[in-house]
Design goal:
globular, mainly alpha, single chain, 152 residues
Length: 152
Amino acid sequence: MRTLVLLLATAGGVGYFPIAPGTAGSLVAMPLLPLLAGLRQRAPVAGWLAVAALLLTALWAADRADRMFPGHDHSRIVIDEVAGMVVAGVFVPGTWAAAALVFLLFRILDIVKPWPAGLIDRRVRYGLGVVGDDLVAGIYAGAGARLLLGIA
């Protein structure tokens, strides 16, 4: 079970990158955005179930990994960046340009942690605390990207 948790929480080991593992984790999610958008368009129920399954998996893996690594929200846990990017991706079309814009906005917002992301990051423990701030950053990044793309 430990191996599965670490495999998921580190996005297949990407969390072990020595420089900017959160950015690397966000890059892992980029190709998922067009794929999930296409799935939601072709088979809406399956597409939304895939998003939900990914988010639930992220919460589960981050919760378990947060108890394994020292401190809270260890830098090796990057499944939260994947989840945040996926949330942002539901706001925009499934194009590479939209995915790149989401990536840029998400990285900025994940670092800045606008309210309530910073509050969640500081006060909520384990899985929900690890993933929650990234979900907020993802919502903000997706909404911002939608506005910048001129989508009403």
